[in-house]
């Protein structure tokens, strides 16, 4: 009697489980309704197709806009020409003559404020012979947000190969007094070689 009762309870439990989980008898096996063959693998949901042309076009547009935002303000910022006068010999302030030996080995431009005047010094560095020269063609001042950039356009002249020059070490430089009232935040040197 006990075994019959156990079998009855088991059958009732299995029937409830089968109805609850939607089990069906297929080919002498109970399987979950809707699942045909587990050996075929799991079907992944279909994702929408990606329009790669649209994505690339949007990325190109973003890069283009970023470049325009960075470059266009420079065209409208205006580069003001800076007035200057070349000073030589005794006209060069003593303070510049004192600091010049520190910079004469380098090829660069630097700005110095003495009293109310701003001077620009362009150096060529150490040369093994004479015949080298430096001159300032023009200067421009570009104002960007909080920065002011002074660009010095220098003309460098080297001796010709067949030219007779003094065989002494030289340090070509030039000094210019500008009409600027304040030192620029940055200074850049643009060099052009002349014959």
Describe the protein.
It comes from Alkaliphilus peptidifermentans DSM 18978. With 195 residues, this protein is of the alpha+beta class. The protein has 2 domains: 1-39, no CATH class; 79-194, no CATH class. It is 28% helix and 35% strand. The protein has helices spanning 2-20, 52-77, 94-103; strands at 23-26, 29-32, 79-81, 84-87, 107-114, 117-124, 133-144, 147-157, 173-178, 186-194. The strands form 3 sheets. A 4-stranded mixed sheet has the order 3-7-8-10, with helices on one face. It is elongated and about 125 Å long. The model has no long low-confidence stretch (mean pLDDT 81).
Strand residues, percent? 35-45%
Low-pLDDT segments = none
Order of helices and strands: HEEHEEHEEEEEE
Shape: elongated
* Structural Rg: 42 Å
Number of domains: 2
DSSP summary, beta strand count = 10
Number of helices: 3
Structural class: alpha+beta
Mean pLDDT: 81
Largest sheet: 4 strands, mixed
The strand line-up of the biggest sheet is 3-7-8-10
List the keywords.
195 residues, single chain, 2 domains, transmembrane, 3 helices, alpha+beta, transmembrane helix, four-stranded antiparallel beta sheet
SSE layout and pairing:
Layout: H1 2-20, E1 23-26, E2 29-32, H2 52-77, E3 79-81, E4 84-87, H3 94-103, E5 107-114, E6 117-124, E7 133-144, E8 147-157, E9 173-178, E10 186-194
Transmembrane segments: 54-72
InterPro entries: PrcB_C_dom (IPR025748)
Domain PrcB C-terminal: 119-178
Short structural description:
With 195 residues, this protein is α+β, with helices and mostly antiparallel strands. It contains 3 helices and 10 strands.
């Amino acid at each position: 009697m006990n075994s019959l009762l156990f079998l009855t309870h088991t059958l009732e439990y299995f029937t409830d489980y089968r109805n609850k989980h939607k089990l069906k008898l297929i080919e002498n096996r109970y399987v979950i309704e809707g699942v045909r063959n587990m050996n075929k693998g799991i079907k992944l949901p279909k994702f929408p197709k990606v329009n790669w042309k649209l994505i690339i076009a949007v990325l190109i547009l973003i890069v283009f806009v970023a470049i325009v935002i960075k470059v266009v303000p420079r065209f409208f910022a205006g580069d003001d020409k800076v007035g200057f006068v070349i000073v030589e010999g005794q006209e060069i302030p003593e303070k510049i003559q004192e600091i010049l030996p520190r910079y004469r080995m380098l090829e660069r431009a630097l700005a110095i404020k003495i009293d109310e005047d701003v001077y620009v010094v362009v150096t060529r560095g150490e040369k093994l012979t004479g015949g080298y020269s430096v001159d300032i063609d023009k200067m421009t001042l570009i104002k960007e947000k909080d920065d002011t950039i002074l660009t010095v356009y220098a003309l460098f002249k080297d001796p010709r190969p067949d030219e007779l020059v003094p065989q002494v070490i030289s340090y070509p430089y030039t000094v210019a007094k500008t009409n600027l009232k304040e030192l620029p935040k940055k200074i850049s040197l643009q060099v052009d070689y002349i014959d």
